[in-house]
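User: My collaborator sent over this chain with a note saying "see what the structure looks like." That's all I know about it. Can you take a look?
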Amino acid sequence: MDHFDVIVIGGGAAGFYGAIHIAAADPGLKVAILERGQKVLSKVKISGGGRCNVAHAEFDPSELIRNYPRGEKELLGPFHTYCTGDTVAFFEERGIPLKTEADGRMFPVSNTSQTIIDCFLRETAVHGITLLKNTNVLDLMPIDGADGKSDPKWKVLAIDRSYTAYKVLVATGSSTRIWQVLRSLGHHIESPVPSLFTFNIKDARIAGIQGISTRAKITVVPRKISQALTIGLRSKVTNPVVLEAEGPLLLTHWGMSGPAVLKLSAWGARVLHGYRYNFRIRVNWVPEYFPEGMLSHLLQVKEVESKKTILRTTAVDIPRRLWSNLVLASGIPREMTWAAVSKIQLEKLVSQLTGSEFKVEGKSTFKEEFVTAGGIELNEVNFKTYESKIHSNLYFAGEVINVDAITGGFNFQNAWTGAYIAAMAIVNRKP
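Assistant: Without extra context I'll predict from the sequence alone. Here is the result:
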């Protein structure tokens, strides 16, 4: 039975980052990373279309936490300890400069995720970290310390052999197998549901105009949540949850995507799961207008552009093809002029512009993002150390905890921060 001072379970971003910081801070420690597959850092490999979106250029912890539907309150302290600037410094100190794109996403200047992978593997070798692939962990058991007066060691049972360690860092992401192991140790696991997904919609108003992007406000039309979800939330749902987001909306051949949709899917992950991804949304294509203001605006256009046809006069700041589809959906004939349109017809157009309703029937994965809402309940983790509140010398980092973010590098920052803080706590706490 091999013994290590620290075993890191999971060869992903958080696992490598934590192991590297542990070994660098205390070179005398014997550290191992156990990875169930043949390949490590697979999520790093595909992130950002193969470029690895390592962080987001938001350096204020109070603003950064607003990108986390689950974990917002808990991450404020950790981000004050280790934030985006520290991430940038870590990579730059290792010869990997980062660049910031217009939307705030940060990538290695090399434009390839292999740069990050090579960095981690190089650091692993430099610090003498043992990397054990094809090592599927089946169970995790505390040994010694059974009297409650002394700290336990840990026995890690893998598929082919067993290991022991003074401390264990679990960084397995959304692994249902490891969640089950942690549940057997007394931890409560918030059931995982998908986050960061796009909406499947079949509707004539958006058919044939894929690729169009425009700013819009989207609201999920409330409906009764299933009893199973209510029980799952472990709370009484007395009022419908208001899910609303504003931002760029992208029309696709399968429906709707873009930042506004992704925000809704993240913040509404559990509610939309309860709806079984069949629900209605209301879209305001001109979010700067309320219906009354839009009607007043169109009546002014009617006076000024009386001789022109409505279809060919884009009276608001939205793409022309979308305008045409909404005009036709309002029942306004193709050749009708502004002079001929009635107030009732304009009111129908206002309804389409400020409150189009669409039926969502299913979801699709957003690009390479596979983010899950769920994991170890937040009140069972000490966010000053990322140690379990139930077991000593058991630490967590990354998405194994019920923390997740919207797209843009925020999930990686959660991994870096949690792994660093756990690493420092592990090094500073003697067996």
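A starting point for your reply to your collaborator: Confidence is low (pLDDT under 50) at residues 227-238.
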